[in-house]
Amino acid sequence: MDDASPQEPRWLSEEEMESWLALTSVLIRLSAALDGQLQRDAGISHFEYQVMAMLSMSEEQAVRMSELAALSDGSLSRLSHVVKRLEKRGWVRRAPDPADGRYTLAILTVEGWKKVVATAPGHVEAVRRYVFDPLTKAQVRHLRDIGRRISLAIDPDETCLGGR
Predict the structure, then answer these.
(1) How far, in Å, are 34, 36, 38, 50 from residue 41 at the CA level?
(2) Is the pLDDT of residue 162 over 70?
(3) Cα 146 to chain center, whole Å?
(4) Which of the ends of the chain has fewer CB neighbours closer than 10 A, N or C?
(5) Domain HTH marR-type spans what residues (predicted)?
(6) pLDDT tens digits, 87-109
(7) What's the predicted TM-score (pTM) here?
(8) CA dihedral in degrees (142, 147, 153, 157; nearest 10)?
(9) 144: burial class by Cβ within 10 Å (0-12, 13-18, 19+)?
(10) How far apart are the C-alpha atoms of 136 and 46, rounded to whole Å?
(11) What is the dihedral of CA 38, 40, 41, 44, to 10 degrees?
(12) Nearest-5° angle of CA 47, CA 53, CA 56?
């Protein structure tokens, strides 16, 4: 039997606990607020919007499904379900990648582009109101740096950041 005792957990300090609780509150409440705004104003979820927005920002408005999953911070399985819903609404279509038929492209349709264009102003206003308006310019830079550091701790290979 090994004499080594189990390592004592590294408990959070009082300041760390306050910071953690503030962050978890933001994660839960911001997600719900953005989802609510998009559902109310555009009839889509935040994840659906994120998928279409990522497609709209790509050069040809077409991205491999595996890459789109990383760009939209979702699993390939979740993305497949969402793309199927978006296809039914005529906003996205799927096609084999002409460069390599083993991959499938998600392609934003003209109607999908119109939906993103119509939805973006309200979404950007909500993001501005909930995230950027309460912060100073220095705090925005800190938020960016903190977000990047946490993302890299979660995913050192930066697959979640999708090259952002």
Answers:
(1) 11, 8, 5, 15
(2) no
(3) 16
(4) N
(5) 20-152
(6) 999 999 999 999 998 999 999 99
(7) 0.85
(8) -120
(9) exposed
(10) 26
(11) 40
(12) 150
Is residue 67 classed exposed, middle or buried when 0-12, 13-18 and 19+ CB atoms within 10 A define those classes? middle
> What CATH number should be reported for the domain whose range is 28-133?
1.10.10.10
Domain ranges of the chain: 28-133
Q: Which pair of structure tokens corresponds to residue 2? A: 């090994």
Contact 121, 127 (CB under 8 A): no
Quick check: 70 and 159 in contact, CB under 8 A? yes
The CA distance from 160 to 73, in Å, is 6
AA letter at 26 = V
Instruction: Estimate to the nearest angstrom the gap between the alpha carbon of 69 and the chain centroid.
Output: 9
